[in-house]
Write a structure and sequence with these properties.
This protein is α+β, with helices and mostly antiparallel strands. The protein is built from 2 helices and 9 strands; from the N terminus they run βββαβββαβββ. The radius of gyration is 15 Å and the shape is globular. It starts with 16 loop residues before the first strand and ends in a 10-residue tail after the last strand.
């Protein structure tokens, strides 16, 4: 874990790691499986810890690596949080801590949202986080300081 920097997220995650030969895996409670530990996965597990531990979202409504079809191509949204009706509410795109959050990252999540139509979008490299709320009726979006808590979901 020396290769993974301290992130700008609450230290709520006690990573469960295991070694498979030369590969280190981290337990993903949303997928109920051990997955390859990469810098992006390190960010995902900590961000999901924030969603659950600070914002109160139950793991049961969070999907990691959610498949979707975009322009006849298979894609995967990094994390999708569903509302109480099973509809996408938040999409989160992760990058490794050393990767800058650029317009290209926002373009990627917006393309995914053309299919999923979530109310909130977030991008994070574990050090910097950006969140925006989508207003479909007005055809606009606004950056927000943080994502809504589970109890505030409307």
């Amino acid at each position: 874990m020396d290769n993974f920097p301290r992130l700008n997220l609450p230290a709520l995650v006690a990573p469960v790691l295991r070694r498979d030969g030369d590969m280190v895996r981290i337990y993903d409670g949303c997928r109920n499986a051990y997955v390859k530990l990469t810098p992006e996965e390190w960010v995902r597990q900590h961000f999901v810890g924030y969603l659950c531990g600070v914002l109160g979202y139950p793991r049961s409504i969070i999907g990691n690596e959610v498949s979707l079809r975009l322009n006849n191509l298979s894609r995967r949204a990094d994390t999708v949080v569903y509302d109480r009706h099973g509809e996408p509410f938040i999409i989160v795109e992760y990058k490794a801590p050393h990767v800058d959050i650029t317009q290209e990252v926002f373009d990627q999540i917006v393309r995914y949202n053309m299919v999923l139509r979530a109310r909130y979008l977030a991008v994070s490299n574990g050090l910097r986080h950006y969140c925006c709320a989508i207003d479909y009726a007005a055809g606009s979006y606004a950056f927000v300081a943080q994502l809504p808590a589970y109890g505030d979901m409307v």
